[in-house]
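Structure in, sequence out. Go:
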């Protein structure tokens, strides 16, 4: 199965190129994002996305936070979270979420490609409308401001 578009999010341009090379066989069009906010911005556009690969340690929002916001917006796009030295909380979160996988070795190209392919072949992705993603982002931003205000 060939994808239409994959988004790859990592703060390092070299790692984004590494992930793109690992997914070349299944993802002909890859866009890179350098932060969690940039990833959300791309997901809120009117272009469909068939796969997201994101680092847990993105600047701004982490990959896990982006995944949680997408699921809040009812987006079931396949999502691979790359999280070396993963803790049990992150592992259990990923296991509970539909259409999500965890890759704990960021340099294991075979495991990354296998996880992505398993997700995209197991069920068709259900895109969230860009408006729903934008509303989820706005809710998150309001909650962040409230937390800061309450100290």
């Amino acid at each position: 199965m060939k994808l239409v578009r994959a988004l790859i999010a990592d703060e390092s341009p070299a790692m984004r190129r590494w992930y793109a090379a690992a997914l070349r066989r299944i993802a002909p069009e890859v866009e890179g994002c350098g932060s969690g906010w940039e990833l959300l911005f791309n997901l809120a556009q009117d272009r469909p996305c068939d796969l997201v690969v994101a680092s847990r340690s993105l600047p701004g929002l982490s990959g896990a936070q982006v995944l949680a916001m997408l699921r809040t917006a009812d987006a079931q796009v396949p999502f691979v979270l790359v999280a070396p030295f993963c803790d049990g909380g992150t592992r259990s979160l990923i296991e509970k979420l539909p259409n999500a996988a965890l890759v704990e070795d960021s340099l294991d190209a075979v495991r990354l490609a296998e996880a992505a392919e398993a997700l995209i072949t197991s069920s068709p992705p259900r895109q969230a409308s860009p408006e729903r993603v934008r509303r989820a982002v706005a809710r998150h931003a309001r909650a962040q401001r409230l937390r800061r205000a309450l100290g």
